[in-house]
Specification:
The protein is of the alpha+beta class. The protein is built from five helices and two strands. The chain has a domain of 63 residues. A two-stranded antiparallel ribbon has the order 1-2.
Amino acid sequence: MARTIDTETTYITQDKIVATVVDGILSGSMITDFFMANGRPWQGESFKIPLKYQKSTAQGWYTGMGDFDTTQQKNLVQMSFTPSSMYGSVTLPYFEVSVNKSLPVIRQEAYAMKSAADDLIDAIGDAFYGDGSSNACDGLEKMVDDGR
């Protein structure tokens, strides 16, 4: 049963506002967290990385003198990434910012910037699994050779 508090009491009693915003939408992306934590400055017109794409087959168990496979193994390809850019707009009316600055529980400007950054990180995580369409960075869907 819902309890009703007398209006006179609510007029003279302050509500408690928790000084943080709880994220109920973004759950994080492990791949984005990994790349963001291990980021390096971009250099050059593209980023090239040698990738070992398969395990050597020149191996095996033997007894005595054995029969060894001495075939040279080719198991490297060169991955190449070109830079992509992403933006996230933050628009705050001056009047609302002024009101918030007068007695903030949470600083509106800081929250808006942090929220936009979190949304961008989530969108980058989605792009990592995508196909690189719409100017997005190349994602796993484009990078993985499915044999077709």
